[in-house]
Amino acid sequence: MIFQDMLNKIRYKYSHFKVNHVNIYGIPQKYFFDKNTSQYCISATPHETLNASHIVLYSWNIYKQKLENSMPELSYMLGKADIVLLQEARESETLMTMITSHEFKAIHVVAFKDGYYANGVMTISKIAPLSYTAQKYSEPWIRFPKSGLISTYSLSNGQQLAVANFHAVNFSLGLKDFIRQLRTIFDILQKHSGPIILGGDFNTWKKSRYLYIKRMIRELNLKEIDYPIDQRTKVMGKILDHIFIRDLKIKEAKTYNISASDHNPIRLKLAYEPQTSTDHAY
Description:
Number of helices: 5
CATH architecture: 4-Layer Sandwich
Shape: globular
CATH class: Alpha Beta
Distance between the termini: 52 Å
Number of strands: 18
Structural class: alpha+beta
Order of helices and strands: HEEEEHEHEEEEEEHEHEEEEEE
Number of domains: 1
Radius of gyration: 18 Å
Low-confidence stretches: 10-19
């Protein structure tokens, strides 16, 4: 009975469907909640923009920085990137020091804490986002949440780029929880009229999960990316990590086989290019 009470307390603590609790690093401006858009918006619009003709983005499940070479790998990425999408980022002094030493900004969703340290998706960027929306969804069995973060950035051509960093629930037999979590991200992205990047660890170890994502990306006219040499991590022969884009041209798409995590990272070089009426997601 005592054990059951403890378990119920844990489940209650981690069962919230959405979360506003984030840690923000390197951004002096404050964010306020806009009731009209249900987003947190920056109080003073920053003057910096991302180069619309050259955007370098990495997406990587960093496995809580458990493995030896994770921080050198991340340091290398920050030396090349405009935006880095991390899943399973674990708050640490080393990580925060690295981000600030490269003069980057970061928003970290506090999905849960193991002791003192926060864990969740983290989006690192050269410039401060104009707005963000954070989300978490509890694993149906173990209850520890996975998280998502949508941020918008100013581009040099006046457009706003929406970037969604997503980590899907893993331990569920059916699709119900997976669909509910994914739908919260898509419902927000549907309100965005400009370019979109949706990336992360989708935990698509079942074919049915991947097929549902394919169906949903068609709703937003998102495109899946082909990789000349595809070294993305697989479980049971199925790829886990994906990036989907809209109104962007692929200049380069690479994957890397590394030992610094249990996932291999993805790197893209992109440029703004609006899709024509004949372009379709695939």
